[in-house]
Write a structure and sequence with these properties.
The complex is a heterodimer.
Chain A: H1 2-5, H2 10-17, E1 26-36, E2 42-52, E3 56-60, H3 67-75, E4 82-87, H4 93-96, E5 100-103, H5 115-125, H6 130-143, H7 159-171, E6 177-181, H8 189-206, E7 209-214, H9 217-223, E8 226-231, E9 236-242, H10 257-279
Parallel strand pairs in A: 3-7, 3-8, 5-6, 6-7
Antiparallel strand pairs in A: 1-2, 1-4, 8-9
Helix pairs in contact in A: 5-6, 5-7, 6-7, 9-10
Chain B: H1 6-26, H2 31-64, H3 74-83, H4 85-119, H5 121-136, H6 139-149, H7 152-176, H8 181-191, H9 200-248, H10 255-264, H11 268-297, H12 302-308
Helix pairs in contact in B: 1-2, 3-11, 4-5, 4-7, 4-9, 4-10, 5-7, 6-7, 6-9, 7-9, 8-9, 9-10, 9-11, 10-11, 11-12
The chains are: A alpha/beta, B mainly alpha.
Chain lengths: 280, 309
């Protein structure tokens, strides 16, 4: 059903699910990345991760496995202790920040500004005038279905709606890469399912690459084209699972045998990560 | 004098019937009525209490025949207020001038210093302790000194400024630091790109000024307004303290000076009249600050929203 309504996504879906995922161009490569915090905690050790264009990559793992740290290193919010981050065409993350959208676990909106002004913030910081930004703001708000709430204040919105505003804000600069740090963890399951569908639709319409941190096996299988399972102490990758299902997914996907299989695979990998942890 | 008591007292007499009606009406989709009723009670009850106290005071003074130089009756205070109005009004203006000028200077100084402190750690570390010392030293103790070194009007103004300054400084400083950490990270992500021509330190400075304007400033607004509410009252207190200190030196023209002067002359009705004016001034300043704060915050801040409910 959904597959037919989104014909424009066919090419990009094809390139992702084509045999040998290496065929997608690499957007960014982390090579041998270590991160040790000043207090001595080793958050990441020898992380090798390649994000390819058009992918939906989930970083799945127990808390403390460094998945958020990896995301922050990608965003350039913190720097790696060792290792290389190679962006498509070279350069450091700072030069690429214009192409990155970031969504936090909390909506992180400015309570004193209305919805439209919140979405405007990244554009405003880039020096775009309110007039020139008006259309971008409208289109981002309609992408998340909040065009009628442009003048509302965050306190007047529900948790799910606030998260939508946060996503609209991340999309306002039309980023190539969208980084999401457990964005739906604080929401109830019904809202989360709804937003999961929204984010799949957004990626189809928008064609951006998404890296999504989560600790939910089901969420990662439902959303991803690739799941990267991580273990803690030190944070590292222990498994990568390609989810070879069509990208156009809806609630029916949850009842397919393939979905169950991928969930089992991911759970087992995650269990391995936790089990190994106990020996330490 | 006693006539007004009839109207407010009619309110509570009706209250049992009204509240019974209210509990029925509440299910009937008319919460507005309940709110109106609560509002009437909140305004009516204090007025009733006020009328009772005034009536009791008046009656006691008349029956016991208390001399007016010990405790004047409310009616006599009122009469004095009218008779001495030109004198008292002049003093009121003087005190108001000191209070608001002191408050304005405290806002400029307090906000300005808070902004400086937020932009530079070095300035924060070197200045903040002295601001605290200035605050914890009782003004009453400084006032006589100020009167020695400064012209009387300047000294009074300085006192009002000193006491009003600190709540604004400390609240604004706290507010500027209380931005959501994630919002600041978001700011780093989107706003930290510095112009190519700028050296690193200038880039950092520009980023800080931007963060101040876009995030810290608005986040600090509720804190600043909280400080302003306190400072408004304190500026009046500072002005009064300094006027009293100046008054005992035999100079001055503000309301507090009138109080000292009336005490010396045993003109107790006038002392009371001046006191009433002072306390009305305090109430009006507080209400004005609250209204101002509510106006600025009503759309988004929890403190203002809870008042709406």
């Amino acid at each position: 059903m959904t597959a037919q309504t989104a014909p424009s996504t066919a090419p990009s879906t094809g390139s992702i699910s084509a045999p040998g995922h290496a065929s997608g161009t690499a957007l960014v490569k982390l090579q041998g990345v270590d991160k040790t915090f000043p207090n001595g905690t080793i958050a990441l050790s020898g992380l090798d991760l390649t994000i390819r264009e058009g992918e939906f990559v989930s970083l799945l793992g127990p808390s403390g496995c460094g998945k958020s740290t990896a995301l922050r290193i990608l965003a350039g919010l913190i720097t790696a202790t060792r290792g290389a981050i190679n962006w498509d065409g070279g350069g450091d993350s700072l030069a690429h920040q214009r192409d990155i959208g970031f969504v936090f676990q909390e909506p992180t909106l400015m309570p004193w500004a209305n919805v439209a002004d919140n979405v405007y913030l990244p554009l405003r910081l880039r020096g775009v005038s309110r007039k020139a930004a008006a259309q971008a703001i409208d289109s981002c708000l309609s992408l998340v279905g909040l065009e009628q709430f442009a003048k509302s204040y965050p306190r007047e919105l529900s948790g799910g709606m606030k998260m939508r505003v946060s996503i609209a804000r991340a999309l306002s600069l039309r980023p190539k890469l969208l980084l999401m740090d457990e964005p739906f963890a604080a929401l109830d399951e019904i809202t989360r399912f709804k937003l999961n569908d929204d984010i799949l639709r957004l990626q189809r319409e928008f064609g951006c690459t998404i890296v999504f941190v989560t600790h939910s096996v089901f969420e990662s299988v439902y959303l991803s084209s690739r799941i990267v399972v991580m273990a803690a102490r030190p944070g590292r990758i222990i498994a990568e699972i390609d989810v070879d299902a069509p990208r156009a997914r809806d609630k029916d996907f949850r009842t397919t045998p393939a979905y169950g299989d991928y969930c089992r695979q991911a759970s087992e990998a995650l269990h391995g990560a936790m089990g190994f942890d106990e020996h330490l | 004098m006693n006539a007004p008591t009839l109207n407010p007292s009619a309110d509570p007499a009706r209250s049992p019937a009204d509240s019974a009606e209210l509990s029925l009406a509440a299910s009937d989709d008319t919460p507005a009525r309940g709110r109106d009723f609560t509002l009437a009670l909140r305004i009516g009850l204090p007025l009733v209490l006020f009328a009772i106290v005034i009536w009791g005071w008046e009656t006691y003074v008349r029956i016991a025949g208390v001399p007016h130089y010990v405790l004047p009756a409310p009616s006599r205070i009122m009469a004095t207020m009218i008779a001495d109005w030109p004198l008292l009004f002049g003093s009121l203006l003087q005190t108001l001038k000191t209070t608001f000028l002191g408050l304005a200077l405290a806002i400029i100084g307090g906000v300005g210093l808070a902004v400086l402190l937020s932009l530079s750690r070095a300035i924060e570390y070197s200045l903040y302790p002295y601001a605290v010392v200035l605050q914890v030293t009782p003004v009453v103790a400084i006032a006589p000194l100020l009167l020695i070194y400064m012209p009387q009007e300047t000294a009074v103004l300085t006192c009002a400024w000193i006491v009003a300054f600190f709540p604004i400084l400390s609240n604004t400083t706290l507010g500027l630091q209380s931005v959501d950490r994630n919002l600041l990270e978001l700011f780093d992500l989107y706003g930290s790109a510095r112009p190519k021509w700028a050296p690193r330190w200038l880039g950092t400075f520009i980023a800080r000024v931007k963060a101040l304007y876009y995030l810290r400033g608005p986040a600090a607004l509720p804190y600043f307004l909280g400080g302003l509410k306190i400072a408004g009252g304190l500026a009046l207190i500072g002005a009064v303290v300094a006027e009293i200190a100046a008054g005992s030196a035999g100079a001055g023209s503000g309301l507090a000076y009138r109080i000292i002067e009336s005490q010396f002359r045993l003109n107790i009705p006038r002392l009371f009249a001046a006191l009433v004016l002072l306390s009305l001034t305090g109430v009006i300043i507080f209400l004005a600050m609250s209204a101002f704060s509510h106006m600025l915050l009503r759309r988004w801040h929890e403190s203002a929203i809870s008042q709406d409910k």
